[in-house]
């Protein structure tokens, strides 16, 4: 993603954009492969609700938060894929910034249409175009208030979602398929890895014999929705990177509908990382229930982690894989 950071670097080094000399700079939604080195060291406030990104930038010594804190002298907005979320981030940046707002994004993420819409509301710079994307800037001011969005919305089943979260417009078909095929008995301790806004967890908690359900989710906005969607006291919600989180005690069952995209690119390694993490969380006789798109090659990864693996249900779109008996040692198992 070199094009994204090079646009910012070019604009700053050329003096096209002038940053304040002392005030903090809000940086909305950067990813680990964005190079922020052109920004003043020690004055960036990284704003991201995605836990792996939060941990990455915190590890580099940046100050990080989920939402803005106070006022900023300038802001940089790295465009997300979801249009509603992109507009909300721009509106948020404008609301907390006293100077310039810089917007950077790829054409595939809608930078062209956002630039066109921003021109109707502010005196926008000529865009800097490079590497299939654009960067532009304008002075913060009124006119973006309606982009702030209406916040959480209610969908089918009375569930609440938010712009930009996975499956914001309705129940994910793969998650519904998995929930419909889970057995009655899952054990007393269960984890829902990548639980999103809580649909699978809500369905799992229909079982009276479950004592604790860990919903682990990296997207802070989705987890906020899950808190509204799941009132059951047996649910424990964790804002964590699934691949790094471990329960205090080994689990009976893990259930997951793992992500398989990094940006717009398919990345089955994410699902494989979820499988390995699940195996490390389970008791010796524990089990994993996983749903995936039919084409994703997870059987080999599950076979490497579990003594028994089978497809227990499927159709033309999805398959449900059941793994039992994790092979490797785990510091959690008892």
What would your notes on this structure say?
By secondary structure, the protein is α/β, with parallel strands linked by helices. It has two domains: 147 residues, Rossmann fold, CATH 3.40.50.150; 174 residues, 3-Layer(aba) Sandwich (Rossmann fold). The strands form four sheets. The chain has a seven-stranded mixed sheet with strand order 3-2-1-4-5-7-6, sandwiched between helices. A seven-stranded mixed sheet has the order 12-11-10-13-16-18-17. Helix 7 links the parallel strand 11 and strand 12. It is elongated. The protein starts with a helix and ends in an 8-residue tail after the last strand. The relative contact order is 0.10.
What descriptive keywords fit this protein?
334 residues; alpha/beta; Rossmann fold; 7-stranded mixed sheet; 9 helices
Strands of the biggest beta sheet: in what spatial order? 3-2-1-4-5-7-6
What's the CATH architecture name of the largest domain? Answer: 3-Layer(aba) Sandwich
Summarize the main sheet.
7 strands, mixed
Number of domains: 2
Strand content: 25-35%
Indicate the overall shape: elongated
Order of helices and strands: HEEHEEHEHEEEEHEHEHEEEEHEHEE
Radius of gyration: 22 Å
Mean pLDDT: 93
How many separate helices? 9
Could you estimate the helical fraction of the residues in percent? 25-40%
Query: From the structure provided, what is the oligomeric state, counting identical versus distinct chains?
Result: single chain
**Derived structural class:** alpha/beta
Distance between the termini: 44 Å
Give the CATH topology of the largest domain. Rossmann fold
Number of DSSP E strands: 18
CATH class category label of the largest domain: Alpha Beta
């Amino acid at each position: 993603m070199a094009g994204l950071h090079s646009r910012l670097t070019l604009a700053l080094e050329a003096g096209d954009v002038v940053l304040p000399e002392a005030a903090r700079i809000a940086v909305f939604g950067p990813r680990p492969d964005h190079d922020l080195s052109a920004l003043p060291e020690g004055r960036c406030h990284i704003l991201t609700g995605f836990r792996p990104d939060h941990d990455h930038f915190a590890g580099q010594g940046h100050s990080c938060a989920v939402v803005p804190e106070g006022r900023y002298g300038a802001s940089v907005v790295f465009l997300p894929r979801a249009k509603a979320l992109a507009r909300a981030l721009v509106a948020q940046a404008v609301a907390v910034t006293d100077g310039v707002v810089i917007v950077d994004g790829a054409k595939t993420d809608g930078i062209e249409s956002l630039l066109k819409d921003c021109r109707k509301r502010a005196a926008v710079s000529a865009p800097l175009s490079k590497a299939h994307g654009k960067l532009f800037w304008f002075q913060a001011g009124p006119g973006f208030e309606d982009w702030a969005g209406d916040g959480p919305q209610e969908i089918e089943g009375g569930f609440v979602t938010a712009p930009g979260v996975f499956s914001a417009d309705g129940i994910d078909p793969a998650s519904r398929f998995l929930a419909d095929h889970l057995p009655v008995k899952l054990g007393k301790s269960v984890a829902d890895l990548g639980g999103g806004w809580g649909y699978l967890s809500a369905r799992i908690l229909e079982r009276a014999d479950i004592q604790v359900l860990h919903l682990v989710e990296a997207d802070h906005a989705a987890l906020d929705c899950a808190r509204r969607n799941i009132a059951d006291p047996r649910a424990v919600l964790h804002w964590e990177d699934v691949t790094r989180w471990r329960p205090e005690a080994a689990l009976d069952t893990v259930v997951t509908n793992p992500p398989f995209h990094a940006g717009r690119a398919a990345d089955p390694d994410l699902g494989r990382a979820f499988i390995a993490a699940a195996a490390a969380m389970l008791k010796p006789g524990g089990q994993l229930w996983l749903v995936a798109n039919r084409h994703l090659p997870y059987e080999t990864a599950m076979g490497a982690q579990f003594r028994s693996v089978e497809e227990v249900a499927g159709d033309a779109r999805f398959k449900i894989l059941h793994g039992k008996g994790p092979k490797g040692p785990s510091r959690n198992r008892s």
